[in-house]
Design a protein that fits this description.
Blueprint (H helix, E strand, L loop, with lengths): L1 E8 L4 E6 L4 E2 L3 H5 L5 H11 L3 E2 L14 H23 L3 H8 L9 H10 L5 H7 L7 H17 L1 H4 L2 H23 L4
Antiparallel strand pairs: 1-2, 1-4, 2-3
Helix pairs in contact: 3-4, 3-5, 3-9, 7-9
Length: 191
């Protein structure tokens, strides 16, 4: 970015522009206009031109390809099925296997945020449903999914908490229940 600054020169009653990033003096407005600029005009020019920003050679990030709402909903349904399958690890008292299973990046539950965001951005959900689902900042069933799932994964990383299968089972059940609520809200809106 190249920033320009204007400086009022009291000795010649003129305005001088400086390129701040390249430290070069640009021609003064008095030289350009061949006229003396009074203080009032200099003040007005300063206000009018001071945040002049010129971008130079900046690559802008490309927009992320958005997820279609129907695909996002199907992903949430698959995420619920994956969570249901993960109960098998708890039935076998295999917290290490559950940790490995849930750390798989290809699981739909690990992409819950993007999918929920696509659903919340869609026009298919009404305003009341969007509030009921919510986000981590606005609370709601969607926030419960994020909080419960995050707590489950955190407990699996802690050796002492990972051995408490009763607590792990409760967090998994609460995650599934919250996800069921999100899915139910979406279904009531035609998904």
């Amino acid at each position: 970015m190249v920033l320009f600054a204007l400086q009022y020169d009291y000795s010649s009653n003129g305005v001088t522009a400086f390129c701040t990033s390249q430290r070069t003096k640009l021609p003064s407005s008095s030289a350009i206009n061949s006229a003396v600029v009074d203080r009032r005009a200099a003040f007005i020019n300063t206000i009018a031109l001071v945040p002049v920003v010129w971008s130079q050679g900046i690559d802008f990030a490309e927009a992320k390809v958005s997820i279609k709402p129907d695909a996002a909903f199907k992903s949430l349904v698959k995420a619920r099925e994956e969570l249901q399958q993960s109960r098998e690890f708890l039935a076998k008292s295999d917290s290490e296997g559950l940790r490995d299973y849930l750390s798989d990046g290809s699981l739909n539950i690990n992409n819950y945020g993007e999918n929920a965001g696509a659903l919340l951005a869609s026009k298919q959900l009404d305003a009341e449903s969007k509030r009921a689902i919510g986000t981590i900042r606005t609370y709601g069933a969607g926030a419960d999914v994020v909080i419960m799932y995050g707590g489950l994964k955190a407990d699996l990383e802690d050796e002492e908490a990972a051995s408490n299968f009763n607590a792990l089972n409760k967090k998994l059940k609460r995650t599934i229940d919250s996800l069921d609520e999100v899915i139910s809200i979406c279904r009531s809106n035609g998904f």
